[in-house]
Amino acid sequence: MNYHGYFDRGTRKVECCIIGTGGFGRSFLAQGLVVPGLSVRVAVDRDVRIAADSLRSVGVEETEIRQCQDAEAARQAWRDGAFIATDSFTAVAELPVDVVVEATGDPEVGARHVRLAIENGKHVALVSKEVDSVIGPGLAAMAQEAGVIVSPVDGDQPSLLIGLITWAEVLGLEIICAGKSSEYDFVYDAARGTLDCNGETYAVPEFAGLERLGDTAAADMVARRAEATRALPQRAVPDLCEMTIVANSCEMHPDRPDLHCPIARIDEVPSILCAKADGGILTQENVLDVFHCLRTPDEVSFAGGVFVVVRCRHDETWDMLRGKGHVLSRNGRTAMVYIPRHLLGMEAATTIFEIALRGVSSGAAQPRHCVDLTAFADRDFKAGNRLDMGGHHHSIEGVSARMVAAAPLTAQSAAPFYIASNRTLLRDVRAGEPIRMADLDLSGESDLLRLREEQDRRAATLKEAI
């Protein structure tokens, strides 16, 4: 896409509010000071001091920051042209911002923020994948009815992958597999016999000789590498969460509910993530997956980038492309096209401009509920146990995730992962079983659950109309 013309000199700036100022939010605040046509004057966090500190950290002068606890103070600060820090989105929900960027990562709080933003006529750039995985299609429909847009965000993998998939479809490329690399590379040091991942170093003596695929059968190498690195976590809920968002935007599914997640070098991906008939490990095509980027310390990273593996239909064309450095499988039947980056908040401005200036989403115009991300017990749980969610990956100890075909929620449905989070169990759940809706204490107010029920009713009504 040609991004020239998103803004012109003299054109008003697109005004934004960022909710959640750590990580993604802070880098987006920084971009708000340097990107022409973008203004990010409103910062919301759980503590007003955190929001104010975030503004200071990106270079906003102390004299320009107002800490506001109510709507009247926020309105006055806006009229004065100040930067606004607050711990309550309700205090700033009526300000004349164009786009609300929801980046808390909290499924309950995030759902409430998106609802309030839509009700106040604001577009939403939805960074919080936890919310999107449960109610993304419903929020998009609700926003459409209100004349606004809820969109995934460029800079994060779901939006980038949706863009790559749709680009490949426009070109008529046959997609075998689409996905991303996991957040952290697997960096192998043969001399030391160690593997570094996410700041941790693991001794992996059994990995010797598994550095390269060579002529080994893909399925065999994938299994041997997984076993040799069994001490490392090889599936992360956030990865499956992000693929769920892509599934609902592109109407794709995983090949297996917990993904294959092979450990693979960049040049091995099209040889591994292809159909068994083509020498790979997939039982289906047009599927989603994730790989762990295997590399040595001196090799380039995939940087959490995104990819599509496509069928090589015209030998002469793909022979030419191989000669130009493109990545083909061992037998030349498939190739990988990829974008080795995701720049988080630094890249979000393209989505903001698309929403506010062009009136289009960075994802699907209307996502369809194809896949649910559900909670699965990896150990025995007792009634009364609380499924506390926490940590950088917003995980639940002893609970993993599965991507399953979407369906309206019933008492016996496997619970969406982020509906199960922070809930108390009403009955025992055995290891190897899904955690079902009936297993959970669902008492109390929950925007996330209520909006999911609305999404299910909307889908049922649409199905009846068809």
How would you sum up this structure in a few lines?
This protein is of the alpha/beta class. Helix content is 31%, strand content 20%.
Structural class: alpha/beta
Number of helices: 13
Q: How many beta-strand segments?
A: 21
Strand content: 15-25%
Describe this structure in words.
It is built from 13 helices and 21 strands. It has helices at residues 24-32, 48-57, 71-79, 107-119, 129-146, 157-170, 218-228, 237-250, 269-272, 315-323, 349-358, 417-420, 447-465, and strands spanning 14-19, 38-44, 65-67, 83-86, 99-102, 123-126, 150-151, 175-181, 186-189, 194-197, 200-203, 253-254, 263-264, 287-295, 306-311, 327-328, 334-339, 371-377, 389-390, 395-396, 399-405. The strands form four sheets. Strands 8, 9, 10, 11, 12, 13, 14, 15, 16 and 17 form a ten-stranded mixed β-sheet that branches. The longest helix is centred in the last third of the chain and has 19 residues, at 447-465. It starts with 13 loop residues before the first strand and ends with a helix.
How are the secondary structure elements laid out?
Blueprint: E1 14-19, H1 24-32, E2 38-44, H2 48-57, E3 65-67, H3 71-79, E4 83-86, E5 99-102, H4 107-119, E6 123-126, H5 129-146, E7 150-151, H6 157-170, E8 175-181, E9 186-189, E10 194-197, E11 200-203, H7 218-228, H8 237-250, E12 253-254, E13 263-264, H9 269-272, E14 287-295, E15 306-311, H10 315-323, E16 327-328, E17 334-339, H11 349-358, E18 371-377, E19 389-390, E20 395-396, E21 399-405, H12 417-420, H13 447-465
Parallel strand pairs: 1-2, 1-5, 2-4, 3-4, 5-6, 6-7, 8-14, 9-14, 12-14, 13-14
Antiparallel strand pairs: 8-15, 9-10, 10-11, 15-17, 16-17, 18-21, 19-20
